[in-house]
## 1
Amino acid sequence: MNSSLPLRLWPRLIMQRFRLVGYLTALLVSAGLAVTVPLAFQRIVDDGLVPGRVDLALGWTGLALAAGVVAATVNAVANATGAELGARISERLRYELFTRVLTQPYAFHAESKAGAVVSRLTRSPVEAQGVIQTIFGTLVGQGVLLIIAVITLARIDLLAVALVLAMVPLFLLPMRSFTRRLFAAGRDQTAASSELEHFLTERCNVEGAVARRLYRTEATELAAFGGLIGRLREILIRRNRTFYTSQLVTTALAAVGVAVVYGVGAINGASVGEIVAMAALVKMIYDPLIMISIQGLGLSGGLVALEKVFELLDLPTDPSTGGRSLPGRATRLSFDGVWFRHPAPGTATLPDLAAEAAGDAVDQDWAVTDLSFSLVPGGITALVGASGAGKTTTALLAAGIHRPTRGKIMIDGIDLAELSGESRHRAIGMVTQDVYVLHASLRDNLTLARPGADDDQLRRALARAQLAELVDGLPQGLDTVVGDRGFRLSGGERQRLSLARMFLAQPDIVILDEATAHLDALTEAALHRAITEDLAGRTLLIIAHRPSTIENADRTVRLASGRLCPSTGSGRGGQ
């Protein structure tokens, strides 16, 4: 465990400096009032009970009661402020985590287990928040109380303080062993929980339900689930056994410490009131030590989660976005000696998020090799080849989703990697084979392409995509929720939704990757007419297997094993 992790919270804590000052002030006031209670006990005994002065005893009792109530009240305020500090810091960590994930390159998402990433974004900040709130809600407060109690006890009996402090290593030494064991268990628990969440994410969705009914996998899935939760159970038992053993050790040591102080008081001839006060102060010293020890051990899982949070925050962001803008409408896109290979499995993400173990990048084959060609400006370029030839990879490179390992992709003479994200979005649009559909309304799904679009713009895009009749027949129209991953829509309807987004965005360069594969012939023909009319004058790159889809292409680029074929040519329908 990296001991510097809590220090990394400091920049976020400074952002809450005013609350921090108020929190520390409340702690000092609360601790100062708390130690007056044992001193009042001494006066009750020595000045009131021993000489028989009931009035003095009652006066000091009232003072002790008032100090205790006010101390408890101020301490409650301090704890509430500490909890708010923790919540605000955790909120900031969540925001930073999601920002970091959004800015990761495509390879990170392609190689990461979705469930593990979701766990890192949801469960890890919650556990880390427990650490932060315990630090500010318990540990700091107990630490302040311990220090003030030690100072107060020293004013009564220095020997007692020396003996109390001499026993502190007896608390700390066993904790080192317990802490190591608990951190190991915490890491195992985090890994097991992440694997369990990924398992559930894969199976508790529409695709999982379909596969389960097709292949009758209930028994297999239940057995796998039982194995995962059994592993988690064993880890939790091991962790709890260690935790409660440590609690026994610290409590026993505290009892010995109190007994030692009583003995010291008797030897030094202390008054009864002084012994009562010393015993109460020793309890104020050992109780925080016990609390800090137990809470510190209980934080092992949260500190592991905090470690995982910072592992993700330390990942570099996607370097593929520059700051340049295009001077006008984009027309020409060209590949200039482009080579690309996918990162080795597990190397573009964190080890515990990876779907596969890390490999050796040298062993990876080139997905595309030395591609040099241009799209027809304002025309249609067809990209053809057998399955696995590299067509989709080439399209993803053209869209800026992949970044070339070597070579450049140029738009009107500007390297695609140098363009800002906004310029690239305006310049290039892509309709992919797998359609991304939110569990939201049709309106929300459409406006991903153009936030703020009005109903007229949405309906025109739907009409061009041959979806207007379907939407008009829905009870809530554009506000109809399409379900998880769009399960209320057919495959063809999801494709048309994706095409509607493209019509709405109106990019200068359009990439269609099997964009009409799930459509019947009549719908496909109508869509091609809409594409030809609506996108006239724009530069198109079309990937399709049906000859009818590319029969009007101005140029055909043929790929085989990621390389250009000699038959690549130009001219309408040419090969």
## 2
Amino acid sequence: MIALLLIIISFQGAQLIGMASGTDTFVDKSSKLYQNYDHLYLNLFGTESIVVMVEGSDVTDPELLKALDRAYLSVQNIPGVVEVTSPSTVLKEVNYQMTGRSVIPDDPETIDGIIASSMPSALMPDDTHAIMSVVMEGTASDSTQEDILRETETSIELANFPADYNVIVTGEPAFMIAMNDEMNSSMGLLLGLSVLLMIVVLYLVFKHVRWRLLPLPIVLVGIIFTFGAMGFLDIPMSMVSMSAFPVLIGLGIDYAIQFHNRIEEELARGESDEEAVIDTIKHTGPAVLIALIITALGFFSLFTSTVPMIQDFGKLLMIGIVMCFIASLFLGVTVIYGFDKLSKKNILARLGLKKKTAHHETHAHAIINEEHEPDFLEKALKGISTFSMRNPVLILSIAGLLCIGGLYADNLVGIQTDTETFVPQDMPALLDLAHMGEILGGDDQLNLIIKTDDNADPELLEWIDEFSEHEVAGRSHIQEASSIVDIVKAANSGEIPDSSEEIQAIYDQLSDTQRDAYLNGNSITMLNFNIGNAMSELGLEGVEALSNIVEEDLKWMAPPPGVHVTITGHSMVYVAVISALTSGRVFMTMLGIVLVFGGLLVIYRDMLKALTPVLTMVVVVGWSGGLMYYTGMEYTPMTATLGALILGVGSEYAILMMERYFEERDKGADPEAAMQEASVKIGKAIVTSGATTVFGFCALIASPFSITSNFGVITVMDVILALLATFVIFPPIIVSLDKYREKRRHFLESHNKSGSGGSNILKSIQEAITNECEI
């Protein structure tokens, strides 16, 4: 009943989950860079534009232009729209000056004449394309932008464009909204595929228990709890965080399997239902909780990232594993307890949900009591661990060299942060955006916010004009500059007035739209440098280098005294992601290693037990970096988390193997024999656990988002590497260190004994001398 109530509450929380795909998912809002962008640019000058692009054989056709005008008149009345620019407005204004009638001319020759003399190329780049721009505030919420987009699409439909023309509604807001929709549908695909793969795994490897598919609905309840917590804690769904759920299914189902397997084992021993539950909680609960703590410590390092979507990913993983543990501990054990009660009353047998109890009990006792012939997997695991233990120098040398080489190659792995490469490349919104770029050219910008005491100072405007001309002429990737100077010169016969009063008079005549585009009060103005498609052509490193060049130019071609210039904008914000994904991910991995080591040391209070699993996972981290380099993969906001994930997931396998190793050592086995026994008895369970995790991560590969599918590929490889290291690297490390510790202990004991004997001889001599002196 409690679980049902929590499920209902979780569904309510899930309704509060928002989608996030904007700039603030890449850059921390508390950073100075983002605050400059948000406060100085976005709030004061920032706008977003929905672009309506009409293409056909001849966009100068009067009927086409009249349809465009009908769309213009409808769109400009949409709430939240700041400005609409359209070729139809230029034609109507010029025609009004010529004839006194503000209408689209019917005469094609008149239209051609107006276009040739007065039409901006941005509105009609050629005879086959016409552009209408719907401008909204840059601070408009996602819901407001979506409302404006849908209203614009409706206005286009009602405008009755001629049938032989193609009308495309595109632009950055349209792309972001389409991406959010794609993420929603992709989320369902990933969860559905994860569930299907888990059914296959459980059916194949968990067939020795009753109700073999039960762990799946138990972990799904944990996922529902996670969704609810996500909504109540205001954690948004992003390209990264949506991948947490298949990961959680892969991890969480292991908890459910452990509890399910143990309670079935206790019941098979003939214990009562109550005793089986108590023993299961007593023995399995702490072991699984230790694994959860170590996994959480590995994930905790994700919070050190300065990329918000990685922090959200870490929050979801931390919350999710706790929720899956709670669901497995309380709900899972309770359901099995109830099912077993019902099975004894033969109720489930009538429903076809249960095999005969006697058969199950006989089979279970056979598993426990009878010696069975080792199967192929057990023989293989024993052989691998034996070979690695007998050749420690060879194995560890090769592993160490590969690790060092991988850590070096990791520094050469590229970084990809272009949002457009993360999404499905056949997504219509992306294709439309790319097509618009081909027609209009790129619109990436460097935005220079200029703080001054007087926006109308002629010296300031002269400097802006000279600096703009210098940068456009001298820097190949700066295609054009735009500022209030262009408007002032156009209003004053191409010259900048000599006095502040004349400039202020021109400002006073401007429309609010013209003024607000470049001026804020009397102290802030903006200079825009159009850098075309620099984000895709140069990459973020190139954009950063270009901004550094502009910074250098500002130093030697300095603005007037008292004027301060800040470079900001979308491009500069994304540049900050470079350092976050390079230095940030390295620090994340190092912190994860320290946290896992510290956690193991606190739990075991044994240096050997704390060090061995960590050394094994450090090797895997090195292998992973080399694997990424040689497969040509690039770091993204998701793959940057791999170090933490390897530590969190892989440490569990090494810990389980270590626990069994020392259990056998406590029984009196020597190190080699203990390792062989551990490989056989726990190895198969570790492989099964790894298989469920691998299958859970495999669902990510099917994602239409390349950022997610690439993450799935490399994560599956890393889990396989972690399993390989557990059976190849872990045995020689722990056996060698354990032997060294044993030898050191024997040496110290013998040294203490000899030291104690020497002291007794000296004492006897001293007593004899004392007696002689007394005599």
## 3
Amino acid sequence: MEILLEIGMEEIPARFLKDTLKNIENYIKKEFKDKRIKYSNLKTYGTPRRLILNINEVSLKQDDFTETNIGPSKKVAFDDAGEPTKACLGFVKSQGIDVKDLEIIDTEKGEYIGVKKHIAGVETKELIPNILKECILNINFKKSMKWGTKKLRFARPIRWILAMMNDELINFEIEGIKTELKSFGHRFFGSEFKVESIEDYFKKIKENNVIIDIEERKNKIVESIKSKCTKIGEKVLLDEELLDEVTNLVEYPYPIVGRFNSEFLEVPQEVLIITMQVHQRYFPILDENGKLLPKFVVIRNGIEDSENVKKGNEKVIGARLSDARFFFNEDLKRTLDSFVEDLKNVVYQKDLGTIYEKVERNKELAKYLLEKLDIKEIEENILRTVHLSKADLVSNMIGEKEYTKLQGFMGKVYAEKAGEDKEVALGIEEHYYPRYQGDKLPTTLEGALTGIVDKIDTLVGCFGVGLIPTGSKDPYALRRATLGIINVILNSKLNINLLDLVNKSLDIYEKKNILKSTREEVLIKVKEFIKQRIINVFTDLKYSKDFVNAIVEVDFKNIIEIESKLKALVTISKNDNFDDIINLVKRIENIAKNYQNTEVKEELLIEEKEKELYNYTEKIKIDVKENLESTDYNNYFDIILNSKGIINEFFNNVMVMEKDENIKNNRLALLKSIYNEFSKVADLKYIE
């Protein structure tokens, strides 16, 4: 048996389509599973005007089901004479059975009375109408609406519902909209048609110029652009996000090449590209060197070329590009420093002040960081980059909210036009990197350090005034900012003490009396937040999570050192004795975990093997200190690995829990002492 559902409606926003189809798929899969209906394949299709569900080889009836209901325990259900108690009779009555129908069922908790009921499956066709109706009623949209006098909320008004089981109509109704064996083709290049079977639907919908498969529409756009829209040496810039959006704006795509006045090319091509992509959903055309040509591709929702559509879009883009050129030229009449002054009038966040105040805090952090890193030669460049980093936010290009995607980039362009150092200009753009997962990272120290102090200020400030991410809500993108800090440090190999930087930021906020919680409370929360992001970054880099946990539980202030420690731990873990030494260390930890004293009294050392372990421990303390000071983590872990024999000898020959309290405590102190040496880089008990 095959099922088809098509929900016809006014055009829904492109961004809704894929999520809505996934919503339908998940709902139906759950319902079929809960109702024990088998099927072989389920597929969804969609256009802005219709949502389609197709299910193949649906079973004719539900699977039969045996239900087991457990009652009271056998001891409670029957008295000493074997007669049913009130508890037993109450259970029997609730199940609508006789005492003789009861079974004794073995469970983990013992013997209980119970009853097994065989429930025969009903025919699928009796269940399907309500399942499909409820599926429609339960579709969730980010935004929905009501229309007319109807109570149903949907993304856009529903105009028709086609529902079929093989070649028969599935009858149901939603607020006056009855299912029918008919559908509609393309709004302009199709017509209403009757549907005689599911096979007939797929044939006629194509004849009526609707491509219902999203991937097929997407591929048609790409192929038709390649075959119809470019000459030799030209390339259409196919942004994947825009391609997905355009695919879900049309039912049948047809590409048309338009042109604009080449005079607009005096504006930076990134501005023109953003204008075409974001505002008009056009695909720009580049030459073989990546330079923008005065041409674009617009995807028409139709089956043929149209001169009117071409001219209309050319007229619209001309007006858009005129605005962009005007904004750009007006901005060039001003200095970047004058833009910085205007930041005094732009509120960053009501408790954290203006963007100008944020920049001033960033400068103070940058001076501290430069001193710690001992970078003198580019200090002036770094501070200039910080000073100008937010200037373009009040430019016409960005401030008018038309080109917000270009923040940073426009700052770079204006800095170049003003004659700023090229590293400063590039740093202004790069301090926003990475903007999303997988984005590029800064190539300059100017961009890296400016970005780090900017993100640290944001993180500490938001936590300081209680703007802490919860669940999926993170309005100030603190997770992304923290991941950015970590990835930039790793990429730029910066030897930064992250917690010192956090504390310096707290100093600045505390001095300005901005914190709404105690400094200690904010620090604890920020540290935990950073630690979790560090774990995420290194596990994403394919390091074992237990290795990462073992290291960050000891110390996570220096990202570069964490990476070095992890590499050393990975290397040593390949040794045949690694598992044995880990188990020995865990044994030491289990024995001595509640004992804090590490002062060992030599006069209380009686057994030869505990004396040997003591002498060994005193010796490796020197070696451990030297290795940690020189950050030679490979040698450090070698020390631990080479301790297997002497620790085994100790456990094989010495009773730790001696009856004499003094001797016992001395041995615990010895174990605690060696455990502490073994835990200065990684807490090995976390390693599985």
## 4
Amino acid sequence: MQKNYFFLLILLLITACGSVRKYNERQNICIPPEKLKEDVDFAYAKIKEMHPGLYMYISKDELDRKFDSVKNTINTPLTPLQFYFKLQPVISDIREGHLSLRIPSKRITKREIKDLENKKGMFSRFEYYIKDDRLFIIGNKDSIEKIKPGTEILTIDKTPVSHYIKKYRRLISTDGFNTTFKPYFLKDLFFNYYVAEKGYENHATIETVFNGEKKTYRLTRESKSEDDLKKEKENKKRTEDKKINDYVAFSDSYNRNFKFLDQDSTIAYIKVKSFSGDYSAKFYKNTFEQIKKAGASYLILDVRNNYGGSLEEIHKLYSYLSPEPYVLIKPSQVNSATTPLKTNYFRKSNALQYTFKTLTYPAFFFAQTFSTYKKDGKFYYKIKADKPSKPDKNAFNGRIFVLINGSSFSASSILTAKLKNDKRAVLVGEETGGANDGTVAGFYSYQVLPNSKIDLPIGLVLVQPDISFTQTQKGVVPDIPIKETMDDIIHNRYPQLEWIMSDIKNEKAKAEKYLMK
């Protein structure tokens, strides 16, 4: 038995390595124009078939013209990556932030992954800021080459950074005509795009400027020390605290944080970086119990730089923010009764998982078949959040402030749009990156273009907050617009939070003055 298991393991490793090699070889092969045009037609056909609200931000005629136009530009054979850079800008013109091709990039073997795990990142150890076509380093916690925050990167291996920014910006899909999202998303994905083009290199030369002085640095992918590896191993241990606060080992930080900002515990502060869903119910239960016990009068909810996540989590969170019964979202539209069955149930399953899923497929099929209903000629997907809900017994009754910015996306925008509509909170910051009136996501159908083999995940559910729509085709607009500058970030200044604390202080002073009369 053990001998058979050993040979099976060797066979799986050989198959995996062969699969990676074949995939990488395919990335270098130029595909004939007629085959690429077939992929364009395939992508558009699948999007039209599955994507609800496809023409929310663009007319059918205009989108037809764009897809026809891109086909007319394909006259020579292209690699999958070259084809991606042609087709993705057209898909981004649909202006649905969750709809995007996956960039085809070189895959690495398990041995290469192991090698990279023992080395530090080359670009990922910095924090970045993008303004127009310029890229700045604003964080360097490891003091790499003693590069100072505020340093601008002019070139990477002699290619101007502005060239890459202009090229990559066209790839990013936004919700509607939002203008705040791209700088945040691009600074987070810039080197994902770069590595997809260049591969995993072990060194790079960057030309920089700081305070008018130009310098050149050679960055290398350093090996991790024993202390680094020991710390990583320790960080991977999932303690109860790490689970509840959703610890992220990569950034050595928590997705959820709670604290009081004053000595008498009247101002509660909750920071949520991602609505991951993991252990969130317990976090909010513990947090709002403490807030109620302390008798806090103010709550600051910080969803800046939160790209969204679990609808279930924001539904649970809203039960603590609304003292009255509420409905979080409107009925969620899908394109057909069979849409829930298009989610690629067997996707990325190994032999064991495939066997298990085969056994459970009848249950999946039955559940999904009865998960939709038809009303007024349209199909809808049954979601708990579109039903009337009661507030939690520990729901907060005081004054709420919400911090938002261009990186508050998807579920963050659903939540903040609802809070604003219900006049339950004062929103401070800048317009959210996600749309005010909803977005298409929920769950996905993972399509693969037949010739280029590029992945195309398509959101299947139109999720909209239960609000009076603004019809602005943009994000959630703050009540108090305050933009954080690069200088604020570098020098740890928090203008949005300072405004809130000042407003609370003034309110407390007025209350004390009234009581003294």
